[in-house]
Amino acid sequence: MNNKIKKIDKFKKIATYAILIFFALINIYPIFWMVMNSFKTENQISINSFSLPESFMLSNYTKAWNAVSLGRSFMNSFIVAGISVLITVAIGSLAAYFISRFEFPGKKLIYSFFIFGLLVPIHGTLVPIFILMRNIGLVNTRVSLILPYVAFNLPLTIFILSSFMKSLPKAVEEAAIVDGAGYLRIFWSIILPMSRPALATVGILNFVYNWNEFSFALVLINDNKLMTLPLSLSLFSGQFSTDYGMQMAGLSMALVPIIAIYLLMEDQLVKGMSAGAVKG
Amino acid sequence: MEHIYKHKKKIIYLGILPAFLLYLGFVIIPIFISARYSLVEWNGFSPPSFVGLENYAEMFGNNIFWRSLKNNMVVVLASVLGQVPIGFLLALLVNQKIKGRHFFRTIIFMPVVISAVIISLVWSMVYNYNFGLLNNILSFVGLESWVQNWLSNPDIAMFSVAAVIIWQFVGLYFIIFLAALQTVPDEILEAAKIDGAQGWKRTLYITIPLVKDSILAAIVLCISGSLKTFALIYVMTNGGPSHATEVMAIHMYDNTFNGMKFGYGSAVSIFIVVFGIVLVTIVRKLFAKFEN
């Protein structure tokens, strides 16, 4: 009897690992396969796309870097995503501070109003935002991306920050108020430093969302000089769609920063994305 | 305390104002403007003319629109029937005392953070007829008869695309379920064990009811996420071949920005918003009924 249970346990363990390794391979192997082929010539790829590369040929990499101006796209994405995150966190944390730490008329309503934004699909706003940007002459500027990015990131930012700030003990600012410190001073020198973990979460989360964003960029930017990374990469599916070695090299380079950010900030990203997902 | 706060309400509202205005201006008001645009005929340049509900009538009479709605429902079903069970299974497996838990968690979640554009280009090559990974593997294991043009065969292109959507987002559902499973106290499962509930029965009768809120949240997320599908399909097939993979967001984009039918496109985008809300409400109601 005891032996039988042991056998079942052993079988369960093997099955567990078999399934997990299977899914891990499905996630990793396509990317590994692409990186391997990025070092090969077109001919080598079509003869045998399974084999390891004979040498680390870099000509695909230089070609891809120049063809869609990857350096410039990295820079554009970094600027747009970075500035958007700074603004979102600045105005979002201020709003979250007042919503979470004070009582005032309309507080609940304002909070639900912000949270409602988690449900709004981007495509419901695309046309009016395009028309607005065109009318005020902002199409093909970085500002045209930063404004909607900030606006669409605010609901999740306020949700995460205000639930964190709510959990801080009231006593911390009572002492400061007795000392005569004003609201903004308390916000700046007490609440913000204490909220560092939550600020890191929303900062990295918004950065990744903006870094990956495609729809607004597609509609609002068509000047090559301002294209963000996803937009530049999408050119691979059009004009360069047959040079696969080059395409694989370009995609491999594009993966480096996002994978690095993920491995470094995994906990914040995982926590933030699942929090937003469940609430939405 | 309270009296100190009271006469400083102005500062409170001023502090919320910047976030409020940006959010109002770029998220909320545009939806109302979309609704207004949906009632006009407009090429984006010459003055718009009011046509009432004609755009909606045109939309409901358009076969391609119905096709895009059907394709969206394929994505919804693939997500609900693919991502939710696979994510749940993987969460159950990782939520055991096993070696490499963290490693598996990292790998399973990874595709969620990669941009849809990169993923669709990688998978376009995986699906490539000549050198693609999938056809290569099929010939390697002796299934040559399955080898085919995954993205240009209109009968299966939609399923090929849906498989990639499942692939990208399984990790998100996995994490949601893993977090929920970690809140299930060990004592309950131990008690169930002593009562004789084993293996699948324990999962079915004890674990699942305890995490049913996350399951509902996951299904709601599947629906709203699926209706947003755009970049992945835009890059991988652009809705083709001959509208076989066109979803509503692509239909909307194509009509607005290529067909210069801003009114019609807005009608489609309003439909996407309303349809999402209706679908989510129905699922919530069903769940509530199921509970009683």
UniProtKB/TrEMBL annotation, chain A:
Domain ABC transmembrane type-1 as annotated: residue spans: 74-265
For this protein, the record's Gene3D superfamilies field holds: MetI-like
Pfam families, alphabetized: BPD_transp_1 (PF00528)
Output the GO biological process annotations, alphabetical, semicolon-separated: transmembrane transport
Where does it reside? Cell membrane
Q: In its UniProt entry, what is this protein called?
A: Carbohydrate ABC transporter membrane protein 2 (CUT1 family)
Keywords assigned: Cell membrane, Membrane, Transmembrane, Transmembrane helix, Transport
Q: Which family does it belong to?
A: Belongs to the binding-protein-dependent transport system permease family.
User: What stretch or stretches form a coiled coil here?
Assistant: none
Tell me which SUPFAM superfamilies the record gives: MetI-like
Query: CDD domains recorded for this chain?
Result: TM_PBP2
TrEMBL record, chain B:
Is Signal given among the entry's keywords?
Answer: no
Which keywords fit this entry according to its UniProt record?
Answer: Cell membrane, Membrane, Transmembrane, Transmembrane helix, Transport
Q: Which GO terms describe its cellular component?
A: plasma membrane
Q: Where are the transmembrane segments?
A: 12-33, 73-94, 106-126, 156-181, 215-236, 262-283
SUPFAM superfamilies assigned: MetI-like (SSF161098)
Q: What is its main location?
A: membrane
GO biological processes: transmembrane transport
- Pfam families per UniProt: BPD_transp_1
Classify the protein's membrane topology as the record does: Multi-pass membrane protein
User: Which region is the signal sequence?
Assistant: none
Subcellular location, in the record's words?
Answer: Cell membrane
Q: Which residues form the ABC transmembrane type-1 domain?
A: 69-283
Q: Which InterPro entries match?
A: ABC_transporter_permease (IPR051393), MetI-like (IPR000515), MetI-like_sf (IPR035906)
Q: Which family does it belong to?
A: Belongs to the binding-protein-dependent transport system permease family.
The protein in question is named Carbohydrate ABC transporter membrane protein 1 (CUT1 family)
Lineage per the UniProt record: Bacteria, Bacillati, Bacillota, Clostridia, Halanaerobiales
